[in-house]
Specification:
Methyltransferase, Cobalt-precorrin-4 Transmethylase, Domain 2; five-stranded mixed β-sheet; Cobalt-precorrin-4 Transmethylase, domain 1; alpha/beta
Length: about 290
């Protein structure tokens, strides 16, 4: 039985590929690529003639059987358009299918946009989380950002150029004026990393319309910031957290697209109310219909 190799490929500069990756791409029976036209540029550059088929979000079910059949007689190399496969692409499902069939899955390490942006950001690299692409829908995006507001570790995500300004506005509103690094076209000719607060970066990208592929690195919350905010709000609003006030606040958050546990946590923080009290009000308002 063959091995599925997860081969990391350059995220921009074609020189950023390992000797082992080139050998595996040459020796494999088949290469499964997210976009064969994109991968062909790399293969032609290194004179690799291994047969190549597409494997992407829209054909993954049809291609899976073909790839599993190929693994019965040889090795298959999986590559994404750029970077390490199975991160923010359908490669994960193929890995799971191969493991279920008893095939060996072997990583060939190499370029990774999240790690490249992280190490160049100047932010804490000892603890971090990668959350993939921010959701397209504003409501879902704000819910996700609300869920990470108290994380003290560095957070990394992807965003497209046409949604970047909108995402930065939501980051400013939800996470406040913490430090960010926004990297685009890493390792390419016009590589750039802009650093600053969300408000500062909104000004920057308003003047310099975003183009390319963006990775956002977000500084974590300061340790103890949630408890500090709770104490400040309790002192500032000692009598505000009545059931009626909590209900009104939850309705306002729902109108902004923030619901569920994110709304409960946000309302508790902003009103200085115990989370279990806010949760009881939320259940009374929304729980029976959810």
């Amino acid at each position: 039985m063959g091995t599925l190799y997860l081969v990391a490929t350059p995220i921009g500069n074609l020189e950023d590929i390992t000797l082992r990756a080139l050998r595996v791409l040459r020796e494999a029976r088949l290469i499964a690529a997210e976009d064969t036209r994109h991968t062909r540029i790399l293969l032609d550059h290194y004179q690799i003639t291994t047969p190549c088929i597409s494997y992407h979000e829209h054909n993954k079910l049809a291609r899976r059987a073909e790839i599993l059949a190929a693994l019965q007689t040889g090795d298959v190399a999986l590559v994404s358009d750029a970077g390490t496969p199975a991160i923010a692409d359908p490669g994960l499902e193929l890995v799971q299918a191969c493991l279920a069939e008893g095939h060996t899955v072997t990583p060939i390490p190499g370029p990774s946009a999240p790690l490249a942006a992280l190490v160049a950001s100047g932010m804490d690299t000892s603890r971090f989380a990668f959350i993939g692409f921010l959701p397209r829908q504003p409501r879902e995006r704000r819910e996700l950002l609300s869920a990470i507001v108290d994380l003290t570790l560095t957070v990394i995500c992807f965003e497209t150029p046409h949604r970047l300004l909108e995402a930065l506005r939501d980051i400013a509103t939800t996470l406040g004026e913490r430090q960010l690094a926004v990297a685009n076209d890493l390792t390419k000719r016009f590589e750039a990393i802009a650093r600053g607060t969300a408000t500062e970066l909104i000004d920057h990208f308003t003047s310099h319309p975003p183009r390319g592929e963006f990775t956002i690195v977000i500084a974590g919350a300061e340790p103890g910031s949630e408890r500090k905010r709770d104490r400040q709000r309790l002192r500032a609003q000692p009598a505000s957290a009545t059931p009626e006030t909590i209900a009104s606040h939850l309705h306002q958050l729902a109108a902004q697209g923030i619901t569920g546990s994110a709304a409960v946590r946000r309302a508790a923080q902003e009103l200085g109310a115990p989370k279990n009290t806010v949760y009881d009000v939320w259940r009374e308002l929304f729980g029976k219909s959810s």
